[in-house]
């Protein structure tokens, strides 16, 4: 469970996040939506304690996020904006390295890597290739595999579907649907509304440094009356009047 | 067929040199082997003329022979276990003799034997006396120790019938007793080695012909850690080149000093403080390791977001430093030994500065990280503060040459190192944002 209370984060004079209150219960899939540069990644980096917060608190499974011990941290799985891939290694070595960080038994590591590889990759040579030679989609897949290798209770994914072809994106969604069934919490920040709609149980919309919407998917779409993108446009109200001023179109 | 095997192996070796890194590594190793030969030859001459009187020449040669034998046997296990391979499957229509010969040739065509041969030839070349005897003895020891290694590996790596296995053990025991008897009666070393070689070749032939199949032994996991560390070093372009340049720079300076010493009898940097900066492994730290997470950012990011501890990062950092430090030591020690008689000061200086630099590097990497944008960046790859502290520390320790009183600095340096390391562990949680802020911003 993730609980954010009154979170404020500023960079110099610029307030990126202001008085954010948010609670994600066990078993929920929370999708954070918003325009580019609105602070979604900052919020994620604050939750995973890469950025210090200025005000407020973040609790993860009832403990302060910056006081988590090794065992508490191990309950988190993250695919951040920076995929944190160790490009000097090949996919197999990287996943082995990650498994060893969590001190998983060798047999468990081997079994999980084989299963994940069978599901996400097509050719055996892919996993034995150096990560520096991977395509964007492959990098995303291997980062995702590394995030779930230790089956964390809380999964935090920053733009997990960008750069993936529709087939793989759907594969990932099916995977997440099953993953969530065991009362696990998933927090996603994404622009891919079609994919979000398939998996999210709750939606948050970040705009002008504030969380302007925070409720269930049903509330967001008025129980399916609106599509998710129409619902988002309704809330964000994009300014199209400027378009009329471009007379050379 | 044997000629084809030799040709094929040589062709493969040459083809591998198309990879520039393999080529550089081969040249560096050949060069190092030659330099070591030069050093040992030079030292042997000094010993035989009595100019240096630490050890007798015979004893010194014995140490070299033990070194050759030890290295040849140890490489079976280190850095990872290399199993003995069957060149041809059992059903392949080839005589037992040819099968064994091919296997031996295949073994002796490994690059290791090239490097060790260069070392032996170089030592022989620079020796003024006893050179042919040294050459023959060294080669016999090299061959014998490799044959001993093979004898044991046959027992480890292949299955044989019980009866044959017992015969193997008996033969090895017989060989050992023969060896001890000869030693007790102080029979000429050359005769002993030739007899041993014939005996071991016979045992090897018997073992090769009694192989049934492979065992299912797996050794991969043992070498995994080392392999990953090597890959992290070799495949990181931004760290690899400064490290290579640093080591080459150091070698060139020492080599220049050595040649000036040989021709003029004086040392380029003798008495000059600047030389001592090169004696320590300082260059590795001011180039790379004082900003270790800048060079291996994603290792830091993975460990921090996954377990949030600094201790595992320190262990990983030490693993990354190990190979460059060993290389630095290999470059440093022989040249220093040649140039200076005061071995004690140099060894103490080298190891004290190493401990100081290694331990403090984790503190600098935490509090003064730098984003590495290119291989050699104009603003420097480590912080000025860390460079000043490292250089200052190294220079201050040179005072141990002036007066014995300054030896009190040695425990002080170790204590400072420990305090730095402890401090980095204690302040990690509050200072790690500096790394995130510096390394992750666009």
How would you explain this protein's 3D organization?
Chain A has 249 residues and is an alpha/beta fold. Chain A contains eleven helices and ten strands. Chain A has helices spanning 40-47, 70-73, 91-101, 106-120, 124-127, 136-148, 166-180, 193-199, 217-220, 228-236, 241-245, and strands spanning 2-11, 14-24, 29-34, 55-60, 63-64, 76-79, 154-158, 185-189, 202-207, 210-216. Chain B is mostly helical. Chain B is built from 18 helices and two strands. In chain B, helix 10 runs parallel beside helix 15 (311-339). The longest helix of chain B has 32 residues, at 409-440. Chain B is globular and about 70 Å long. Classes of the chains: A alpha/beta (249), B mainly alpha (442). The interface between A and B is medium-sized, with 32 and 26 residues.
Order of helices and strands of chain A: EEEHEEHEHHHHEHEHEEHHH
- Number of discrete helical segments of chain A: 11
Largest interface: A-B, 32 and 26 residues
Helix content of chain B: over 70%
How confident overall, as mean pLDDT of chain B? Answer: 81
Oligomerization category of the chains in this entry: heterodimer
Widest beta sheet: strand line-up of chain A:
6-7-8-3-9-10
Low-confidence stretches of chain B: 214-223
Instruction: Give me the secondary-structure category of chain A.
Output: alpha/beta
* Number of contiguous helices of chain B: 18
Radius of gyration of chain B: 26 Å
